[in-house]
Specification:
By secondary structure, this protein is mostly beta strands. The protein contains 1 helix and 45 strands. Helix content is about 0%, strand content about 45%. The strands form 10 sheets. Strands 27, 28, 29, 30, 33, 34, 35 and 36 form an 8-stranded antiparallel β-sheet that branches. Strand 19 and strand 20 form a beta hairpin. The longest helix is centred in the N-terminal third of the chain and has 7 residues. The N and C termini lie far apart (about 50 Å).
Length: about 600
């Protein structure tokens, strides 16, 4: 039974999908079994949203962008990387990545019936494809993924999918001027693993093209610097034609999430919903078990009056409302529910060595608690300290040493284009557990009961629009994938505390060099964390970086020669206090003056 009476349409990143399991042989030679989905391509087609992602046995579909169902299919090469889906001449056209041999195109007008027709076995090889049909019905194609070759574009014959004319080089890296394209954790090249330095020279991957036309202009989006980094992001160029010439947008990256519970927001797709609202779906990283351990994020997006493409990624892994109408992506997406569980005491039924219960509430999806046994009934209980109003609980499951629990290779496995990776495509991997809440630790109310449901919900969010008074929240496992022990990377409780939001602070900001700046601020009493917002206009602080328990941050994603403004917002369980805006110029013109937008 699922007891969820909320009427609000609420999601919480990462998106709760039945992510497929992969059996991967990494750089160390050891096999790792973990979930993966990435490179999301979303399209609204005949009233239904279709989501195609890498290494998935089919595709996902939804009526509302909240609940996604997996449609399994072998009618097209579902396990190829970076699948692209776009509407062309009233049908969906699907392609994906292949190296060394031509990549086929498939056509369907009824995806749920598996009516996929191969239009052509392919005319050339490509990686990270994107198809785009213009208003005049002419069709264009973009592709590219690597540290050396640029993203290219070409017109295609929309019947044969043959190239019309030569390919045009469109986007290459420029790390001397674009801080966000620098490879490595926090854009620090010294953090790049040695095998990747040897293989690629530390250069960023320029990849994941996606074309969007808005108000007569063409926005060619791309990802950098690498899917395994917290700074994986999407930037863009703008032009007056589908093949350019294009100008780089200094408001890049428009999609970036380098801090918080789960990081990364690159290689995505920008689309409109049924009400004309813009959204951006992107790749988020875990990359602990192996580099390609990834998830999908969804963010409100749009174009401002000056044609600037943006994403609202403030508190982008907190609950988010998806209205059933046109809405303001800056003021109506966040319900204001704050995190109540950060570093709160946790009681566990048992623990595996090295995976203590505190790791379930440290706001880091890359660490996790693991139960000491694989028996049903293992549990985890968060003590919020006092009865508070709970509006949402997100339980994030982790994959811990699953290679010892997975069955032997068999007919349910598929070898990917990378050769060293196998997809485990068994019919289902249920994640059945019970969520309960209590005000006193004695009387418990069921928030979610997944026993017998067969649902695979590794990042389930349960909401209570009216709120539930609770001090304790408990999760009890019953049936988990492969019968492995209960493992939780994020036991996250949201709602409202009974105190006050922190007092405002004023930040100090100075340019370190052309692409980086140092931001610091005094600790705000009672604050749990800080959301650092910045942008090229004091009225447009479109970028953000959320941190906990620190009072300084190096912004590494700046564009050389551009002025920036910065504000540091303080937050705790009771709300968010906006900070004042600080003007930040190039090194020779740095200033700490306060601007009142």
């Amino acid at each position: 039974m699922i007891d969820n009476p909320s009427t609000q349409r609420v999601v919480c990143n990462p998106v709760n999908l039945a992510y497929a399991f992969q059996d991967f042989k990494g750089l160390t030679g050891k096999r790792r079994v973990t979930r993966e989905a990435a490179d999301p391509s979303v399209v609204l087609y005949r009233g239904t949203y279709y989501l195609f992602v890498s290494m998935t046995p089919g595709f996902f579909y939804s009526d509302d962008l909240v609940t996604w169902k997996l449609h399994r299919s072998d009618a097209f090469p579902a396990y190829d990387y970076a699948p692209d889906v776009r509407e062309v001449d009233g049908a969906l056209i699907i392609s994906a990545s292949r190296r060394g041999k031509p990549s086929p195109f498939y056509r369907t007008e009824d995806p749920l019936s598996d009516d996929f027709e191969q239009v052509t076995p392919g005319t050339f090889a490509f990686w990270d494809p994107n198809l785009f049909q213009d208003d005049d019905d002419r069709t264009y194609f973009y592709w590219g993924c690597g540290p050396r070759k640029p993203i290219q574009g070409v017109e295609l014959d929309r019947t044969t999918y043959e190239r019309v004319g030569p390919a045009v080089p469109l986007i290459a890296s420029d790390t001397d001027r674009r801080g966000w394209e620098r490879n490595g954790e926090n854009n620090d090249p010294s953090s790049i693993p040695l095998p990747m330095k040897i293989a690629f020279g530390g250069r960023p991957f320029i990849e994941g093209a996606w074309m969007t036309k808005n108000d007569g202009r063409y926005y060619l989006q791309y990802a950098a610097p690498g899917t395994e980094a917290n700074v994986y992001a999407d930037g863009y160029y703008v032009g007056d034609g589908p093949l350019g010439p294009f100008d780089y947008s200094p408001d890049s990256p428009f999609s970036a999430k380098p801090g918080g519970f789960i990081t990364g927001a690159g290689h995505g797709s920008t689309f409109q919903d049924k009400h004309g609202n813009w959204w951006h779906a992107a790749t988020m990283r875990i990359s602990v078990n192996q580099m390609f351990e990834r998830r999908v994020g969804l963010f409100p997006a749009g174009f401002d009056a000056d044609g600037v493409l943006f994403c609202n990624q403030n508190f982008a892994d907190y609950p988010m409302v998806i209205p059933d109408r046109p809405f303001d992506p800056w003021t109506e997406a966040f319900p204001g529910w704050m995190l109540l569980s950060y570093r709160k005491p946790v009681t566990e039924s048992s623990t595996s060595v090295g995976h203590g219960p505190e790791l379930a509430v440290d706001e880091d999806i890359r660490t996790w608690w693991v139960a000491g046994t694989d028996a049903p009934g293992e549990s985890l209980t968060v003590d919020l300290g006092a009865p508070v109003t709970v509006h949402a609980v997100q339980l994030n499951l982790a994959e811990n040493d699953l290679q010892q629990w997975k069955p032997s290779p068999g007919r349910d496995e598929y070898t990917s284009a990378l050769g060293s990776k196998r997809a485990i495509s068994a019919i289902s991997h249920p994640t059945e557990y019970v969520l309960e809440a209590s005000a006193d630790g004695e009387q418990w109310t069921t928030l979610w009961d997944g026993r017998g449901s067969g649902l695979d919900s590794p990042h389930n969010t349960v909401t209570r629009e009216a709120g539930t008074t609770a001090r304790f929240v408990r999760a009890t496992a019953h049936s988990l994938p492969f019968g492995a022990p209960f493992a939780v990377s994020g036991f996250r409780v949201f709602g409202f505390g009974d105190g006050s939001a922190p007092e405002p602070v004023t930040a100090t900001a100075s340019r370190l060099e052309a692409r980086s700046a140092a931001v610091s601020w005094p600790a705000a009493p009672g604050a749990n964390g800080y959301n650092v917002r910045y942008g090229r206009d004091p009225q447009k602080l479109y970028h953000s970086w959320l941190v906990y328990e620190q009072t300084e941050l190096t912004l590494t994603a700046l564009n050389a020669g551009e002025d920036y403004w910065v504000a540091v917002d303080e937050f705790n369980e009771n709300g968010v206090t906006p900070g004042e805006t600080v003007a930040l110029g190039p090194p020779e013109r740095s200033t700490h003056a306060i601007v009142n937008p």
